[in-house]
Structures are given as structure tokens and as C-alpha cells.
Amino acid sequence: MALSGNAPLQPLDPLAIGMFLAFVVATLLVSYWASRRTRSSADFYTAGGQMSGLQNGTAIAGDFMSAASFLGITGLVFLGGFDGLVLALGAFAAWPLLLFLLARRVRNLGSFTFVDVVSQRLDRTRIRIVAASATIVVVILYLIAQMVGAGKLIELLFGLPYEVAVIVISILVLAYVTFGGMLATTWVQIIKAILLMTGVTITAFLVMAMSGFSFESLFATAVSNHPRGEEILAPGVLFDDPVQVTTILVSMLFGTLGLPHILMRLFTVPDMHEAKKSAFYASLFMGYFYLALVIIGFGAVAFLYGDPQFFTEEGGLIGGSNMAAIHLSTAVGGNLLTGFMSAVTFATILAVVAGLTVSGAAAISHDLYAQVICKGAPEPRRELMLTRLTTIVIGVIAIVLGILFQNENVAFIATMPMVVAASVNFPILFLSLYWSQLTTRGAIAGALVGLVSSISLIVVGPQVWVSVLGFEQALFPYDYPALFTLPLAVITMAAVSYLDASPRGVVDRQNFHDLLIRSEFGERNQDIQGVPH
Amino acid sequence: MNHDQKLAVIKSRTRRRMLFSMTTLVLYFAFILNWTEFGSILAQRLGKSHITGSLLMFCGLIVTFILLELLFLLLNQATTRSGEDV
């Protein structure tokens, strides 16, 4: 989500502030309730594994439908019509694959994080250090992108100074997560998902009402108002290179499947049946959301272009293209809907940051402290205390990085977590579940190659090399390099695993059989004894 | 269920998973046709309407993916009920 940093500050909107305060009070009450039920690490990380499939599916949708999805995709459709929908399809298609490939096996093998799953058959200490480090990298990058985007957005929406916005977000998230853990986070995400779906439904309904409930009329108005006319109904306005589109689709699809805070949600339900239901419900809600965004995106084209109240004297949309969804709510629903949508956007940011914070805290306190340092036998009270302390540290880091990066173009930071997750987390997870020959050595080599190649190619790509560092031409032509880095990581994992003749490699291969049975049947197989770690 | 039966169930489940996943991936990456010569027909308007094949494809893919998921869950449920699976 790239927000214009030079946009004029909006006047303080009392309606939006009032609605937002109502949300904050409701969610703080939820956190208080949740804090009385959060007594162990299992409660903290996974809400005691007691959420239903419907609740968890709604929370997953709440976790994933970020401000970047809502504002960013609407903004892209506003600018380029059909091309803006590429990111929407990329984000959506991961959910069927999550259900088909990962839900059952991940739920049956893990306890709190996806790192639990990959460490089942590989050398626990080494693979945990690598996978938890990748998780922390993804979480921190995602957090920076969210905090900088959120600070700028709230500055625009509410008229609050940037630093105040960043601090307010962190304090609220800390209140939710530190006291209420995953239970509070889940309910914040559920409330936010319901509010966002309500806001999107109302906006889409009003757009259709203004178009006489006719798609033909909506698209005809959009075409007649957009400077590119009919071109917006077909591909080619924003993207004209099929390789560019392919690499975006690969990054979005496999990146989503490797996001630690999304995978972690599979452990908040009691069993794999509920985990599969969660993935389906999440798909259902997100499918609806992305279909509604078609109406909202083209509605923004139809009703904003040509209306001078939404444009600056220089001709740009006030606040940049990411504000298209908010301006549309003003155009079709007046100040009341604008206030509601602004409050929903703030709630959206809180819910996503809360999910990321829990995931980061689990990577440090569970994956590294409890499993690596304490060899899987930590003192429970101490682990829970460390988890809460880690949450506070992550909150402080988010404030510091959010303020440090406030004048940077964060578009590249938003790209990195998806590409890193696609090139490091996803191949380790997928191959450890489905390929019997994977060894610890292969997994670590591939993960390092995936990490280094992703970051290197992003740095020499257009967003950093040209936009940030100021060089004339990028050394690598694509912003999302996962089309190249993911196969590179997989090939490295395969090659190194094949060549690995170490005793540990033999154990890793033998462990696969036992893991396979457990991943499918959810219990340790009595007939087959796995080789101990 | 003995060991061989378990392995047979795993094989069958894995085949089904791979079938559904490959179908999803093929449909998903077919979206790229929109940006190629082969898919230029998708950019055309449908009759006199302003709706293009590309827009229809986007909406159609989302609905198809949801239906595939539903079918996958129903098949799982059916095999569980019939005792072939657990």
C-alpha cells in the first residue's frame, strides 16, 4: 500500500473518531474478558484451540483482508480498471490450496506455529532457528509496511499527527495481545471482519443503486468518465508484460500460503475437520469481499472522476489513489458512511497488526525460547511471561520502525514479506509434508538461497534500485521476484537433499513415513516407530 | 485400520488433493492468458454489453474456486461416511 506522503492533512472528523472510539471500547472489553481466560501458553498462542470453524474462518478473513486489500485494490482499479484485479485474484486463490494441501496435515502435526510442523521430521534445533528467523523477518517487514501505511492513512482519515497515529495503534494492539492473547486477537478480527463486510456491502449496494442496479450502466459510466475510456475493461493499462503478471500471481499465491500469522490460525480450532471448515469459510467471505471490490472499484471510477470535490488543483485524487474507496463512500453515502468506513479502516489495521504481533511473539517465545533454548520443556509460567514481554518488545519495535520509516516509500517493504514467505516458508513447509527425500541440510540451504535471492532481487528491482536509490534503470525488471526465487529455493532444497549422505539426512528421510501417517490420522502410529530426533 | 489400509487411504487422499490443486493452479494461471496474444479474445466485450471476457473470467474464477472447495469438502465427507476414510 503506497500512500502519498504529501497529501494535505484532513480536518479532525468527529463522526469517524466517535465510531472508532465505539470500536475501541468494544474490543477492549473483549480483551478484558479474554484476559481472564488466558492462563497458559496454549491459550495465548492459539486461544486454547477452542474456536469453531466458522469463528476461525471469519477471523482468518479479518486477519487477511487488510487495508492494503481494501484501499489498495480499489485504488488500483480506480487507476487502471481491470488490471487492478490481479492482486485480488492472487490473494484469493491461496485459500483453496490451503484447504486442499495444507489444512489437514498442518493441523494434525503442529501445536502453535508452522515451525512446529517442519521441525517434526527435520533436526529440531537447526530447522527451528532457520524457520523462526524467517518468520521474524516476514513479521517485521509486514509490520513496518502496516505501521507506515497505517500512520499515513490515519493522518489522512482522522487528521491525527503521524507519530500519534503510530503510537495509538501500538498501544491498542499491545492492550489486546498482551492481556487477551490469541483469544482477544481472534475476536478483534471477527468484529473487524463483520464491520468491513458490512461497510463493503453498504457501499457496493449504494453504488449499484446509483447505477439503477445495472452492471451495464455502472461499467458504461465508468468507461465514459475514465481518461483511458474503454481500455479499463480489459488488460493492459497497468501491466502489459505477461511475465510481470505471472510473477505477481506466483508471489501472492505462494506468499499467502507461507504467511506465519495465517498458518498459525489453523491451530486455534480443536481438530482438522474444523481447520478445513475454517479455510472454506475464509474463502467464502473473501470471495464475496473481492467480488464486491469489483463493484466498488468501478464505482470509484464512475462516481469520482469528473467530480472536482475529490481532486486537488493539480488534478490528482486527494490523498492519492488509495483514498478512492473512502472518497467513494462520501460520494454514495455522505459523511455517515465516510465516518463508518474510516473507522472500519482503522479497525482493519488494528486487527492485522494484532495477528502479526501474536505470530512474532510465538516465533520468539515458543519456537526459539521454549523449543530451542529449553529443549521443549520450558517452565510454563515463565514461558507465558516471556511471551507477554516479547509482545511488548514487538510493540515498541513497531513504533520505532514505524517512525523511522515514515518518509520512506514503503511499497518495497510491503512486497518483501510476500516474496520471502513464498521463497522460504512455503517450500520448507510443502516439501517437509509431501517429499520424503527432504533433509535438514537441504531445507536450510534452500531457505537461505530463497531468502538471499528474494531480498537481492527486490533491492535491484525497480522499487528499490530506481525509486529509493535513484538509479536510472533497474538491474532486475520485476517488483515481485518469486517466479524466480521460489523455483531456485526448491531446486536447491532438492539438489542438496539428494546429495546429503550425512547420518542426519538418513534419519530425516526415515522420519517421513511416521510423519505421513500422523499428518493424515492425527495420532502417533502404533505399527510404525519413527526414528527419534 | 491396519498399516496397509492406512497407506491406501493416504494414497487416495493425496491423489484427490493433487487433482484439486492442479485444477486450481491451471485455472489460476490461465488468468495470464488475458495479457497474451492467445487470450486477446478475452478482452472483447460480450455482444453490445460493457462486460468483457476478462471481467467475467475474474468473477468466474472466484466462484469456481469456492465451488471446488465445496466439492472437495463434500467428497471428503462422503468418503468418511462410507467408511473408506476416517
UniProtKB/TrEMBL annotation, chain B:
What name does UniProt use for this protein? DUF485 domain-containing protein
Q: Which residues cross the membrane?
A: 18-35, 55-75
What are the UniProt keywords, alphabetically?
Membrane, Transmembrane, Transmembrane helix
